[in-house]
Amino acid sequence: MAPDGDPTDEEGKVLSPQELELADKDGVEQLGEGRFVVSPDGTDPNVPTELSVDDADVEASAREESVAATTGEAPTASPESPSLDRTAIQDWHERQLRESPSAYGYHLSLKAGTAIDHHTLHSDDVTMAFNNLLLWYARTVDADLPPGAVLGILLSDASVPVQYPVKTLEQFVMNQGLSTDDSIGDLLEAARDDGGVVFPPRTE
């Protein structure tokens, strides 16, 4: 969980991947001994977000599908061994993941600015696990913008191109009330009026 700190009070800042600010987080729910789910937005995970998917259901599913880890505790330093090495910590995380009956899981730590946040999840739904990861990362690096906007900025500047199915563009065009009779200029104008192109398109 991120340490206490005052979030940025700068108004009207223009966000870039290099200027993303870290948001303090308070929302953590304990699932069992040594197991936690960190709310990506620092509040009740059931609070919906600005993304087009139903993130409240996604995060609720994460809690329902998460399985309490085994009774093994996190490695701690003993008087004879005052420090922990990286291998011991990695071995403990690997053991927790292997002993979880869920198909997917991760232990993550993220440093942004001067704060550090931790996130753990176990789930049998690969899409939900990935979506939860995206929400947590976006909300951690910048709490002022909607997660979808943060991810759009990061992906547009990333070196890995993202390929969307053609149907996502078709759905966006239909949502704008456009057809094959309209021009590319009409499509661009509709996208500007909508504040950008959102993938996957919002559904009514």
Key descriptive features of the protein:
alpha+beta, 204 residues, elongated, two-stranded antiparallel sheet, 2 domains, 6 helices, two-stranded antiparallel ribbon
What is the fold's blueprint, element by element?
Blueprint: E1 28-32, E2 35-38, H1 55-65, H2 86-99, E3 104-112, E4 115-123, H3 126-141, H4 147-157, H5 166-175, H6 184-193
Antiparallel strand pairs: 1-2, 3-4
Helix pairs in contact: 1-3, 3-4
What is this entry, summarized?
The protein has 204 residues and is α+β, with helices and mostly antiparallel strands. 35% of the residues lie in helices and 13% in strands.
Describe this structure in words.
By secondary structure, the protein is α+β, with helices and mostly antiparallel strands. The chain folds into two domains: 28-157, no CATH class; 163-204, no CATH class. The chain has six helices and four strands. A two-stranded antiparallel sheet has the order 1-2. A two-stranded antiparallel ribbon has the order 3-4. A hairpin with a 2-residue loop joins strand 3 and strand 4. Helix 1 (55-65) crosses helix 3 and helix 3 (126-141) crosses helix 4. The radius of gyration is 20 Å and the shape is elongated. 20% of the residues are buried.
